[in-house]
Amino acid sequence: MGSKIFKKRMGPIEKQGVVQAYTMLVPTVAIVMAIVLFPLLANFWISFKDVTVSDLRTAEIKVSEKFQKKPKEKGDISKIEYRFNNFSKSSNIKEVSFKDKIPIGLIIKDLPSNCNLSENIIGCELGNFQPKEKKKLKFETIAEDKYFLNNENPKDSSPIVEGKSENRLLNLDLKIKNFEEIFTSPNFWKTIRISFAYSLFSAIGSLTLGILAAQLLMTTFIGRGIIRGVFLFPYIAPIIAVTITWKILTDPFFGTINGILTELEILNEPISFLQVREMTFSFVGLDFTLPVALCFVILFESWRYFPLAMIFILARLQSVPKELFEAAEIDGATPFQKFRSITWPLILGVLFVLFLLRFIWTFNKFDDIFLLTGGAAGTKTLTVDVYETGFNIGNLGTGAANAVLVFLILVFAAIFIIRFSPKE
Amino acid sequence: MSNIQKIIISFIIGSFWGLISNLILGIFIILLIGTTIQFNYLSFIIVSSITSLIITFYNKKNLQTNVSIFLLTFILILVFTGISPYGLAIDQNSFLQILFLLIQSFIILIGNNICLSGINKMSFNRLFLEIIFIRVLKGFGFTFFLTIVLFPFYVMVLMSLKTHQLLILNPLDLSVDISRGVSMFRSYIELFTDWGFGFYLLNSMIVSLSSIFIALVFAIPGAYAVARFNFPGKLLMINSILLIYLIPMITLLIPLYSFFTFLNLRDSLFGLIIVYPAVTIPVAIYMLQGYFQTIPQELEEAGLVDGLSRTGVILRITLPLSLPALASVSLFIFMVAWNEYLFAYMFLDTPSIFTLPRGLEQLDGTEVPRQHLMAGSVIATVPVIVVFLWAEKYLTGGLTAGGIKG
Questions:
Q1: What percent of chain B stands above pLDDT 90?
Q2: Is B179 exposed, middle or buried, given 0-12, 13-18 or 19+ CB atoms closer than 10 A?
C-alpha cells in the first residue's frame, strides 16, 4: 500500500531523482550482472552440456601450402597443393571457404569447379568439415614471362581460411548426463559427508576460539590494540603464504611441529599430518580411528577464521553499555554468572548468524583444502571435486554440475538462515 | 581468608605460571638453538610457588619490592636447577640462557602478581574462586592464542633467513646468526633476481590498486543512488546485494574461465582487474551507502542551491566527508585482491604477469628449498600486514561489514 501512495504523489522533482538514480546504478549493476549473475546462470547451462576444456578453443582449419617444381623458364608446369585439416576432435566446421594470392604470371591450368579466380586471388568453397576431417586441393600452373619479373613464391602469401565452427557451449544439445555421473559416482556420498563434516566442525572451531579470544580482549589493558591486531594475522595473511607455512611446519622429516612434538616426547615418531588419511590409536583400552588429515584441515580453518568471529563478537559486546557488567559485578555476580546471564544472551544472535554464514562459506571454500592437501587423504570436498572434474579430468560439464550442487546446498542454507535468524 | 587457603591458592597459581612459562620458553629455546633441552618443570614449579607465596604475604606493591622479588626468583631458579635452568651447560649459549631466564622470571613475577592481586582483601567463597580461576584461564588464554597466532609467522620469518645446508643439518635450529650479515637475505635476493618476484610484486600492486580504483568508480554512484534516492526496486536491490555476497566463487569459475578463454581475456591481468572489482562491488556499495546516509542531506542541498550539479555535490561534498568509509572500503578491496588465489591460479599462465599468490604457488610446485618458499611467503604477507596495521582502526570496521566472505 505504502509504495502505491508514494508513486501517486511522486512529482517531477522526484521523478527526476528516479532517473538520476537509475543512471547512477546502471554501470554498477551492469558489471555485477556481467561478472557475477550471468556466469551463475551460465553455470547452470554448462552443467547440462557435454563439453571439455579442449572445446573452449574455437575449432579452426589449419592449412598448409606446397609449391612443387618451381618454374625455371616460361611454360614450365608447377603444382600448388593446399592441405586442410580440422584438428578438432569434436567440432564440425561448416561452409569453409579459403582465399589466397597467386603470384602474377602463374596461370592456373584447370581451375577446380568449386573455385573462382578474380584478378590473381583464388577463392574456393570447401564445404563442411567433420571432426578430424582432412581435405586437399591441387592444381597445376603454367609460368608466363611476367612471373620471372617478380619471381614470387606462392607461399609468400599466407592463405586465409574461414568457416563457421559450431560452438559446443552454445548449441541446444542439453543432457542430464553430468548429473547422472555425479549421483552415481561411488564417492558421491563420501564427498558430501566430508564436506559437511569439514564445514560444520570448522565453523564450530572458529566460533569457539573466537568467543574465547573475544573474552580475553574484553578486559582493558595496555597494548590491547596491538594484541587485537596480532590476533587478526591468520585471517589477513594471504592464504597461499599460510598454507605453505603450515605444510612446512607439519612436514614429517623437517617440520618444526613434528620436531617439537618428538622433542617433548608427545609423539614417538613424526606424523605427516596432511598426508595420513586415518590413524588408529588406543585410549583407555578402546581403539579410536581418527581421520588425521581431515582433522588437521579443520584445525587450520578454525585457526584461520577465529579472528573474524572474534571481531564480530567484540563489536557486539562493545556496543553494550559497560554499566550492565558493572551493575552485575556490584550485585555480586561471579565471572561465570556474568558470562552465562549477560554475555551469552547478548552474543547468541551474532553467534547464530556467524555460525551459519561460516558454515556456508567453509562449504564453498576451495583454496584452503586445495592448497593444503589437494583433496588427498580423505579431504576431498565438493568444491575440490568441481575443480578436479572440471579441470583435472577436463570435463567442464560435470564440474559445472558439481558447482550447481554446491550452489543449491547454499540456497537451502540461506533459506534456513533467513527463516531462523533472530529479528535483529 | 585463612592463611592455609592463601597458601593453597598461591601454590596453585605459582605452579601454573612455573609450568607454562617453562613450557613455552623451552619451545622457543629449542627453536633458537636447535638442540633438545631439559624441561625442569619441578624446579620451576617450586620457585614460582615460592614467588607467589612471597607476593601474597609480603608484597607492598612498590617497585622496590617487585624488583627484589624478581631478583630473588632469578637466583632461586639458578639455585634449584643447579645453574643450568634449561639443562644446558652455562657456558654454552650463555647470553641466550640468561636472557630467557630473565624473561621467564619476569613472566613468573607479573603473572603471579596479576593473578594474586587483591587476594588479601577478598573472602574465600565461590566468587573468589571463580575470579582466581578466570585469571589463570586468561593467563593461559593469552599464552595459547599468542602462541598459535605468532608461531607460524615466527617460523616463516626465521626459516627464510637460513641457508639450505643449515636447515638440512638441523631443521629445528632457527637461530638468527647476525654475523652472516647481508647473506642472511640470500633467499630474498635470489627470489627477486632469479625468480621474478619483483614482477610478481609489481603485478600484485597493479591488480590491487586498479581493483580499488575500478570498484570505487562503480560503487560510489551506486551507493549514492541507494542512499539518497527513492526509486522503485530499491528494496530488491539492497536485498540482492547481500545475496550476491553469498554466491560461491567456485560456481563462477567454470563459466568465467570459458568466457575469458573465448574473449582472449584469460592469461591477462585485465581479466583479474575486471573480476576482483565485480566481486567486491556489492560489499563496497553496502558499506558506502551506510556511511553516505550518516552525512546530513542539508549539506548537499546547500551545494545544489549554490549551483553545483549532482556530480559536483558528490565530488566536492559527499566524498571528502566520507574519507574514513572510502579508506575502509579500499582496504577491504586491497586485501581481497592482494590475497586472491583461485582466479589468479586459473587465469594466469605466463610467468611475467603472475601476481604474488600465483607466483608463490608456482614456486611451491617446483623443487625449491624451503627457505625460498618461506621468503616468498614473507614477501606476500608483509605488505598486507603493514597496510593493515597502518590503518587498523578503519579496517576492523571494514572487516565486520564485509568480512564474512573468504
A1: 13
A2: exposed
Q: How far is residue B300's CA from residue A228's CA, in Å, rounded to a whole number?
A: 38
| Strand arrangement, sheet containing A93-101 | A115-118, A121-129, A93-101, A160-165
Record the cell numbers describing residue B310, joined without a space. Answer: 549532482
Cβ of B243 and A312 within 8 Å? no
List chain B residues with CB under 8 Å of A358: 404
Q: Inter-chain contact B281–A31, Cβ cutoff 8 Å?
A: yes
Of the candidates A212, A233, A399, which has its C-beta nearest B141's C-beta? A212
Provide the residue type at B226 as one letter.
V
Q: Which helix (H) or strand (E) holds A125?
A: strand A121-129
Task: Grade residue B399 by pLDDT with cuts at 50, 70 and 90.
Answer: low
Closest CB to A248: pick one of B31, B226, B373: B373
DSSP secondary structure, A128-192, as one string: EE-TT-EEEEEEEEEE-HHHHHH---GGGSPPEEEEEEPPTTTSS---SHHHHHHHH-TTHHHHH
| A-chain residue closest to B235, CA distance | A3
C-alpha angle A213-B291-B332 in degrees, rounded to nearest 5: 50
Domains in chain A, start-ordered, CATH in brackets?
2-53 (no CATH), 59-165 (2.60.40.290), 186-380 (1.10.3720.10)
Helix (H) or strand (E) holding A127, with range, is strand A121-129
Contacts 24+ apart (CB under 8 A), A325-329: none
- Asked whether the beta carbons of residue A227 and residue B146 sit closer than 8 angstroms, the reply is yes
CB A82 within 8 A of CB A64: yes
Partners of A137 in beta bridges: A82
Q: What is the CATH number of domain B190-402?
A: 1.10.3720.10
Instruction: Report the chain B residue with the minimal C-alpha distance to residue A27.
Output: B218
Q: Between B231, B342, B356, which is nearest A21 by CB?
A: B231
Judged by DSSP in three states, A102 sits in coil
Interface test with A, best of B149, B250, B261 (most A CBs within 10 A): B250
Q: What is the mean pLDDT of residues A36-44?
A: 88
Is the pLDDT assigned to residue A91 strictly greater than 80? Answer: no
Phi, psi of B290, deg, nearest 5: -60, -40
Question: What ipTM did this prediction achieve?
Answer: 0.87
Taking the Cβ of residue A366 and every Cβ of chain B, the question of whether any pair is shorter than 8 Å is answered with yes
The yes-or-no verdict on residue B70 having pLDDT over 80 is: yes
Is the pLDDT at B95 greater than 90, yes or no? Answer: no
Contact A31 B274 (CB under 8 A): yes
Cα B364 to chain centroid distance, Å, stands at: 23
Give residue for cell 549532482: B310
Residues 157-176 of B with CB under 8 A from A: 159, 167-168, 171-172, 174
- Segment 175-234 of chain B within 8 Å of chain A by CB: 218-219, 221-222, 224-226, 228-232
DSSP string for A322-356: HHHHHHHHHTT--HHHHIIIIIHHHHHHHHHHHHH
Q: How far is A99 from chain B (nearest CA, A)?
A: 25
Rg for chain B, CA atoms, rounded: 29
The domain limits of chain B are 3-176, 190-402
Q: Given CA atoms B83, B89, B91, B92 in this order, what sign does their dihedral have?
A: negative
Strand partners, A97: A125, A162
Pairwise CA distance, residues A298 & A206, whole Å: 9
CA distance A292 to B199: 38
Separation between Cα atoms, residue B261 and residue B255, nearest integer Å: 10
What is chain A's alpha carbon radius of gyration, rounded to the nearest angstrom?
34
Instruction: Tell me the chain B residues in contact with residue A364 when contact means C-beta distances shorter than 8 Å.
Output: 248-250
pLDDT digits (tens, 9 = 90+) for B206-244: 999 999 999 999 999 999 988 888 888 888 888 788 778
